Amino acid sequence: MGVTAARGFRASGVTAGIKASGTPDLALVVNDGPGYAAAGVFTSNRIKAAPVVWSEQVLKGGRLAAVVLNSGGANACTGHEGFQDTHATAERVGAALDVSAAEVAVCSTGLIGVRLPMDILLPGVEQAAKALAADGGEAAAIAIKTTDTVHKTAQVTSPAGWTVGGMAKGAGMLAPGLATMLVVVTTDAAAGAAQLDAALRGATRTTFDRVDSDGCMSTNDTVLLLASGASAVTPDGAEFAEAVRAVCADLARQLIGDAEGASKDIRIEVTGAATEDEAVDVARTIARNNLLKCAIHGEDPNWGRVLAAIGTTSAAFEPDALDVAINGVWVCRGGSVGDDRDLVDMSGREVVVTADLHAGDAAATVWTNDLTADYVHENSAYST
Amino acid sequence: MGVTAARGFRASGVTAGIKASGTPDLALVVNDGPGYAAAGVFTSNRIKAAPVVWSEQVLKGGRLAAVVLNSGGANACTGHEGFQDTHATAERVGAALDVSAAEVAVCSTGLIGVRLPMDILLPGVEQAAKALAADGGEAAAIAIKTTDTVHKTAQVTSPAGWTVGGMAKGAGMLAPGLATMLVVVTTDAAAGAAQLDAALRGATRTTFDRVDSDGCMSTNDTVLLLASGASAVTPDGAEFAEAVRAVCADLARQLIGDAEGASKDIRIEVTGAATEDEAVDVARTIARNNLLKCAIHGEDPNWGRVLAAIGTTSAAFEPDALDVAINGVWVCRGGSVGDDRDLVDMSGREVVVTADLHAGDAAATVWTNDLTADYVHENSAYST
């Protein structure tokens, strides 16, 4: 399951006591080799949490022996002391597993601006090391949840004999430059660090980077890919990249499906753009329009709000050439009233908004959620 | 009151029947001269409503005899027919007042993508022309309301003998490049079109352009300034510009105070920026962060969300030099935990978030609102 679907990995998830709720809050993923190549992608937020700064540094070596992840605290905006806490965590993992701390990535998620309770966390590391198991992937996925209502895992197995599997957490502060989330993907394919890096960057660019639940970018986003080489099979490059992409896409879709307070998963498809960058920009601008997100929550095919959003971008298009469909009904044609809006059925959880710019051949898809009273409720009461 | 505070103007507000609610929905403002100089500022949205396209063209002449405004329909995304509707409205006003349609500005507000009921609107113009009165400013301000709970007027009188007065509507889709709104400002000062244009652009740049209730830019934003010259006093340039700014600032503050579903008015002050543009960019980015807006709704001084927002900008700053205060308590110092968050009192309607970037001497203020379940409710049920 998840990070232990591929051979050569053990994992665990335990209740260290970091969270007041008493639910599992510490996960460990260990690569037993024989290979240790790894790659990582991190938040593009300039305010980076201590574990992100640490793990970025560790990944420069292209090797990971283990990943330790905690929920219950983001260890962001915690100054020099916060960085020392991350370092101490990696050291404790290294000691427990007899590996170098310089090959241990650290991930944290939770409230910003609060120090982690190290007197609780460090004993938790010992506990997690003792609980490591070849079928521990599910326990690990459970231990990294914050406001997630379900844990998220995915996997793909190649007929060639290797597997890619992963786990993710994230339910709020989901926006590009990686949705707010922690993701660990493992594989038993025999792949080097450069191949992993290329596959991971290619995959995140069109999956996690195109999930934008609430426009808010986190300080802690981390996606890691570890290869044990335990299958002893060197994968075909394209097939491997596609498997990593598929696992990332599956996990990204699960993140949207479990976003805080959401009642709709919205697929924004922009076609006919002059360039892919412009397609992404337009799709993201639509995805961030609060008025449209409210309208979709109310199952109101208010295409005027789609046009008002598109009009704020600098993408190439002519206003009187824009077509917009909601769930397949072209309610706006040529920038004006199109087919009967009463034909639109928005009763399902998934809603598709399609905008054709008629300015070229490029296209992109961004996923978002509706804006609901439950979102407001969850996020107005989070830290108190 | 409002647009009739200055001499030389008459106004009216009537119930034409455009709105199903049966509340006033058509306003007329007439300049009786002797001067007719005017200026206008319009939405920067590339999707412009028909009345915006019309009025921009009219204002090129620098003269206005009258302004007709309707609520109950935005006449946006209504194609060539929608533009003909606007033209016909201006013609009917021209005929009723014996002025050229080419000196009649038209403003519309309401749902996008729906044609106006011209069979109701045009007789309404006749009715409004008959109701014109020297004290009609309040009736006009009432007739342009959509989801506004109160009508908005402001005025400033100079010891030199001239007055600037205005009215505004707008309660949702409030964002820069003008908050979604219609604003008419009048003056009896003897000012030419160039002076009006300079004063109006200077005023909107730091008032309406820095109101960002929900990040959503409208297709219909219009701010007009008309001068009758009826005081026969040529104003001091700086004093006049300040009076126009003060009226715009007063109206902008009223818009924020009446924003859809809001329970807090949030003043985002960014100081220590390298440039004013960067200060505005950082302030606007903070103002658009849904998670922070939810936190403030919950009276939670969650400064981590302020830092996470700042970190997504490209403004000059060092992460470990950022200070953030909420209602005067510096809860974040040096990018990390500052003073005790329990000292922050957020019980009032107005909340001040101050971010000092320590990167220069520039500053800017942007106003926004909290994000509430009522906002979601109003905007998920708007067009249905």
Automatic annotation (TrEMBL), chains A, B:
Catalyzes two activities which are involved in the cyclic version of arginine biosynthesis: the synthesis of N-acetylglutamate from glutamate and acetyl-CoA as the acetyl donor, and of ornithine by transacetylation between N(2)-acetylornithine and glutamate. The keyword Ribonucleoprotein does not apply. It is an enzyme of class 2 (transferase). It comes from Kitasatospora paranensis. HAMAP family: ArgJ. NCBIfam families: ArgJ, PRK05388.1. The record marks 179-180 as: Cleavage. It catalyses: N(2)-acetyl-L-ornithine + L-glutamate = N-acetyl-L-glutamate + L-ornithine; L-glutamate + acetyl-CoA = N-acetyl-L-glutamate + CoA + H(+). CDD domains: OAT. The active site is at residue 180. GO terms for molecular function: L-glutamate N-acetyltransferase activity, acting on acetyl-L-ornithine as donor. Keywords: Acyltransferase, Amino-acid biosynthesis, Arginine biosynthesis, Autocatalytic cleavage, Cytoplasm, Multifunctional enzyme, Transferase. Pfam families: ArgJ. Substrate binds at residues 146, 169, 180, 260, 379, 384. The lineage of its organism: Bacteria, Bacillati, Actinomycetota, Actinomycetes, Kitasatosporales. This is Arginine biosynthesis bifunctional protein ArgJ.
